[in-house]
Amino acid sequence: MSPDKRDLPAAEELTLARLALTEGDLAHAATHIAGALAQAPTLPEAHELLARLAAVDGDGLGLFPLHQNVFVGTVVARAHLLAAAGRPAEGLDLLVAATGYAPTAPWAEVPWVTAPDLAERLGPERTAQILMQVCAATADPVPRAGQAALTPYLTLARNAVTAHHGHALLFGAASALARRLGEVALAVRWASQGLRAEPSKIGEVWLGYALRSAGRIREALAALERAVEHDPDDLAVYADIAGTLADHGRLDEALDWINRALARDPTFDCAVHTAQRLRFQRDGDVAHLIALADFVREHPEDTHEHTDLAESCAGQPWLGQITPAAGPAVDALRANHAGGQLGASVRLGSPVPPSALHTLTRAVPGLRVQLAHGPGPDPREPRRAVDWHLWRHDGTPAVEAPSPLAAEHLRQFVHPAWPHPPAAYDAAVALATLDLTDLLGLLAHPPATPPTALGRVLDEQDPSLWVRSVQVWACLGLLHHRTDEPWPASTRRAVLLDLAWGVEDWATEAALFALVTLAWVDPAVRPEVAAVVAERLADAVEVARTRPVPIARSLAHLALATPDLTPESRALAQTLTDGRPPVPAPPGRLRHLWRHITAIFRRP
User: Fold this and answer.
1) Are the beta carbons of 204 and 188 closer than 8 angstroms?
2) Are the C-beta atoms of 164 and 170 separated by less than 8 Å?
3) Contact indicator for 95, 108 with CB cutoff of 8 Å
4) How far, in Å, CA of 500 to CA of 339, rounded?
5) Does 7 score more than 90 pLDDT?
6) Burial 217-243 (b: 16+ CB within 10 A, else e)
7) Among 280-294, 336-350, 494-508, where is mean pLDDT lowest?
8) Would you say 261 and 235 are in contact if contact means Cβ atoms under 8 Å apart?
9) Which of 60, 94, 177, 221 is most exposed by smallest CB count within 10 Å?
10) Least confident of 2-11, 134-143, 259-268, 498-507
11) Dihedrals φ, ψ of 109, to 5°?
């Protein structure tokens, strides 16, 4: 199904349709009526003109054929014509398809769908099938903004259960739809009536879901356990019970249920996803999530989409989002954006990553920064000998600025959050077309924030997150640079390792994150990446004995996200993070910012 490529208002579409109909050009009239219905599905004039067209053509169905990538307006017009031709079940099938394509549009808000006699004409079995199709095509639960568009289907369900009192499948399907639409009490009542009509596994599942939505957890678990008694081999129910228990703080019982499922089938996808999510929830060991990512990669034929990996990574440092920066430059930047006055100059008493300094001076034009050079290794020098240099000793970029085209290409999709590392790797393939000079240039010359909601939030609250986001995605882009080169001798490996061991900078973190991400998707590189991360973390800890290392705690969070890290390095990283927030900041301020960012990220 596809959207209309034209951009005419519905009224103009109907004007053109009337003209075409007057001239006998039925094909063009049909095209314009479909265009009007796509924009205004309930517009009476569109339905009247559709009826006129059908009267001229016979039934009009031939004017609205179905084919691959068919226009949604064509689908909806054909649905109404099928209903008028005495084939409402086929018409509802098409309306449900349109609902799945655009769930918030009122495709079904027409008299024939809500007519009391429709349910009798369809029969209980066919109505139940249609209601289940609606459930499969919509979110669970349906967002409040989309509920009104689905209420005609709920009216159909009400009419059907009134007409067919003893049909268990119909009551169950009606309950599932009511639950999705927030009619929880109705969902419980209908599911209970369905079970009284005919006890079954699916009936208990429907009742369990309805009771769970109603907050009646003990009864919900009892219903789901009865479903297991009906069919001990349906391991999806085990996963539902485990998830419900875990959601209500009963993690040990949840793990017991999921382990029972895995004992029956260690490869059952729902059980594996739930098990690894719950194990990570129990002990925070990223090995469970890496095992889940491996399972997903090795079993692309899973029965349906799962969200356990993304749910587990959401909000976790480096697993699902960038760790906010630390250090005196960022503290000054945040204070300035919070309404503080930096004055004409500021003195920073500890090392400042070049990226942080450049972000501060760009955000506060004309600011003079005085840097104090204390004891310990010079932060302006690479930690090891490298061939690829991002910054000069004086803190100025050692690479050329990227082309405007490259900068614009990158900023179109950069974001400080991602579902999980494999998803970030896949998304970064869009940067494979950028050359090495541009990718390196983006690290030291980040483009301005885009004129979007995300850009405005970052500009107003914490510009450092935008710069760090650009650097992260540029380094992820490096993973897709010259992929024909074998990894051990590749340019992408050499550059990322040099960035990791170069001048102490935010780019160090970005490069290490890229390496860690690669280790998530390619088990062959895990030993090398784990060794690099461990060595870089140990080096930062050693330097921190003599002077502050602003990136140290972020490196520790990166280590905790690294596959196959040794227990000793993991313990060291855990000591550095110590379960505290990644960055000291004014109470609630960063949390407020991340709520903004997450909301923007989740918008369709």
Assistant:
1) no
2) yes
3) yes
4) 35
5) no
6) bebbbebbebbbeeeeebbbbbbbbbb
7) 336-350
8) yes
9) 221
10) 2-11
11) -80, 65
Q: Render pLDDT for 547-566 as a digit per residue (tens, 0 to 9).
A: 999 999 999 999 999 999 99
pLDDT of residue 604: 36
Cis peptide before 141 (omega within 30 of 0): yes
Three-state SS string over 569-581 comes to HHHHHHHHHCCCC
pLDDT tens for residues 352-376?
A: 899 998 888 888 777 777 777 778 8
Predicted pLDDT of residue 335: 76
**Average of pLDDT values for 115-119?**
95
Cβ-contact 290, 516 below 8 angstroms: no
424 to 111, 415, 475, 483, 511: CA distances (angstroms): 46, 10, 11, 17, 14
Collapsed DSSP state (helix, strand, coil) of residue 345: strand
Q: Identify the band that residue 173 occupies on the pLDDT scale cut at 50, 70 and 90.
A: very high
261 and 238 in contact (C-beta within 8 Å)? yes
State how far Cα 413 lies from the chain centre.
Answer: 14
Comparing 396-400, 459-463, 585-589, the range with the smallest average pLDDT is: 585-589
Indicate whether 3 pLDDT > 70.
no
| Token pair in block for residue 205 | 């599942």
**Matching residue, tokens 């068919």:** 70
**Which pLDDT does position 328 carry in this prediction?**
86
Q: Provide DSSP, 412-474.
A: TT--SB-S-HHHHHHHGGGGTTS-HHHHHHHHHSPPPPPSSHHHHHHHHH-HHHHHHHHHHHH
∠ CA 237-243-248, rounded to 5°: 130
Helices and strands of the chain, counted as H and E runs: 31, 2
Task: Assess contact for 385 and 503: CB atoms under 8 A.
Answer: no
Query: Considering only CA atoms, which of 516, 454, 446 is closest in space to residue 479?
Result: 516
Residue 339 has pLDDT above 80, yes or no: no
- Nearest one of 209, 170, 167, 218 to 188, comparing CA atoms: 209
Look up residue 127 and give its amino acid: T
Q: Which two tokens stand for residue 578?
A: 């110590």
What count of other Cβ atoms lies within 10 Å of the Cβ of residue 144? Answer: 9
With a CB cutoff of 8 Å and minimum separation 6, the contacts of 73 are 4, 33, 34, 35, 36, 37, 38, 39
Instruction: Please name the helix (run of DSSP H) or strand (run of DSSP E) that holds residue 347, with its range, or none.
Output: strand 345-348
Using DSSP, state whether 93 is helix, strand or coil. helix
